[in-house]
Amino acid sequence: MAAKKLTMRVHGLAHQRFVDARVFASKLSSLVRVLTNTDKKKNGHKCLDFVISDLKIGSAVAEIAEKQASVKYVAAYSSVDAVHQILGVVYNGHARELNGQASVLPTLRRLSSGANKHFSHIEIYVDEDEATAVRVDEFFYKQVEVAESDVEALSEASKKRLFSGTAHSTFDGILKAVDLRGSVKQAKLVLTAGEIEIDCVCNDIEVPELGHSLDKRVRASGIAHYDGTTPLPSRLDIKKVQPIKAGADLSRWRGAFKVSSDAEDW
């Protein structure tokens, strides 16, 4: 994954020459928090560090570069790209496309709060390409509120239709080991559709077969336990794993299991 850069430019009010340092620091802090939380959400771990690669003297412009945090967890996704996409989704009023990233909305509300009172607007763009700029202003603040309302409505509507109980189900994803000691073996299935994790128990799978399936794309079948709070099971008792050939096209299933998470608080 190529490292990306995100530039934030804060514009002062029309009658002011400068941007208040406290305003700039607050907005920079909010943006870094969104980047950090998105990295953990998308990559499953803290994989990236975010450093100030450029802070222009005489202006309210900061360039934030992402870099690999450690060799233990390698980032599969760019947090910069993901955050830039989220900004566009909120700006355009497409809450359904947040894909489990709704938890950043309160921080985006803080990022955009005070527009036309303490600053004019903020421009955020990728890799010094101003053509990619998203304008964060009073309109964006209102769009965040709309997104929060839409996410809550979608969540309530989803809860009314969710199944609670057990069912024999099959899921496509990457099988990750958690604890293979003893007779109750635990694993995680990272779904191909949405990169969401399902907690799994693998008692009925022989250790050699289980070992051969780890870190590979498989079709896992078994008894799924649904608690009625999300469309996905809270646990899958795997009875069978079937490897999926490289290059298999399951793109039509992408997004089928995307769910929204509850918004975080500051």
Shape: elongated
> In total, how many beta strands?
10
Strand content: 25-35%
Average residue-wise pLDDT: 86
What series of H and E elements makes up the topology?
Answer: EHEEHHEEHEEEHEE
Largest sheet: 5 strands, antiparallel
Overview of this protein structure:
The protein has 266 residues and is of the alpha+beta class. The chain is built from 5 helices and 10 strands, in the order βαββααββαβββαββ. A 5-stranded antiparallel beta sheet has the order 2-3-1-4-5. Strand 6 (164-179) and strand 7 form a beta hairpin. Helix 1 packs antiparallel against helix 3 and helix 3 packs antiparallel against helix 4 (138-161). The radius of gyration is 21 Å and the shape is elongated. The two termini are 30 Å apart.
List the helices and strands and how they pair.
Blueprint: E1 5-11, H1 21-43, E2 48-55, E3 61-68, H2 79-91, H3 105-112, E4 121-126, E5 129-136, H4 138-161, E6 164-179, E7 186-191, E8 197-201, H5 207-213, E9 217-227, E10 235-243
Parallel strand pairs: 8-10
Antiparallel strand pairs: 1-3, 1-4, 2-3, 4-5, 6-7, 6-9, 7-8, 9-10
Short description:
The protein has five helices and ten strands. The chain is elongated, with a radius of gyration of 21 Å.
Features:
disordered C terminus, alpha+beta, 5 helices, five-stranded mixed beta barrel, 266 residues, five-stranded antiparallel β-sheet, 32% strand
